[in-house]
UniProtKB/TrEMBL annotation:
It comes from Herbidospora solisilvae. The keyword Plastid does not apply. PANTHER family: TRANSCRIPTIONAL REGULATORY PROTEIN NARL-RELATED, TWO-COMPONENT RESPONSE REGULATOR. Keywords: DNA-binding, Phosphoprotein, Transcription, Transcription regulation. Residues 150-215 form the HTH luxR-type domain. It comes from the Bacteria. This is Response regulator.
Length: 221
């Protein structure tokens, strides 16, 4: 069973999440929180497999709560899926930097939300396509460094691994990368695993953020 903590300040929305998740044979909601501070306390007490986190909540917002539970200082980083109405580039980027494993918009179909939870629980990560393109299209321009693009990344990764990383940063799924590079999905998974290991990253979301922070890829619009 995937044990879930639902963190959402709107009671009606929170109840909807609980109903959706508890209806799944492999999911169980073990806790709820209506603000960020309560979310942090509940997460540390319950140790859920996945935390579904809103961004704008009272007392402590979702980004700060995510940072406390999954950021660099977290002893046992939580797996956090951010689900929010706020399709704002800066929110996306800050949530990912804070340690979120995925980011979905609240207008996503319930099936996408369920799949997202399962993806994060399995140790993978995801970005809604629209969110990925927002990150690529606007906010990434503001974090591009002046130093040579991705020098440290280029030195560590092979040519093929760099190709895969660039595709990841473009928001492509494993299947889409496999098609574009004419390789199998399993081969893509192997490359992604190598990239994460070599760059000491937790998941592919961190790989996307790193690709933009280092200037390895940029806005191509």
């Amino acid at each position: 069973m995937i044990r879930l903590l639902v963190c959402e300040d709107q009671a009606l929305v929170r109840a909807g999440y609980v109903t959706i998740f508890d209806a799944q044979p492999d999911m169980e909601v073990v806790g709820e929180a209506a603000d960020g501070r309560a979310a942090v306390e509940a997460a540390r007490r319950l140790n859920p497999d996945v935390i579904v986190m809103d961004i704008r909540m009272p007392v402590v917002d979702g980004i700060e709560a995510t940072r406390r539970l999954a950021g660099p200082g977290a002893a046992n980083p939580a797996k956090i899926l951010v689900v929010t109405t706020f399709h704002v580039d800066e929110y996306v980027y800050e949530a990912l930097r804070a340690g979120a494993s995925g980011f979905l918009l609240k207008d996503a179909h319930p099936a996408a939300l369920i799949d997202g939870v399962r993806t994060v629980a399995a140790g993978d990560s995801l970005l809604a396509p629209a969110v990925t393109r927002a990150l690529i299209g606007h906010y990434a321009e503001r974090v591009r460094p002046a130093s040579p693009p991705g020098a440290q990344v280029v030195d560590v990764l092979t040519r093929r691994e760099l190709e895969v990383l660039r595709q990841l940063a473009a928001g492509l799924s494993n299947a889409e990368i496999a098609t574009r590079l004419s390789i199998t999905t399993e081969t893509v998974k192997t490359y992604v695993s190598r990239i994460l290991t070599k760059l000491d990253l937790r998941d592919r979301v961190q790989a996307v953020v790193l690709a933009y922070r280092t200037g390895l890829v940029s806005d191509s619009r």
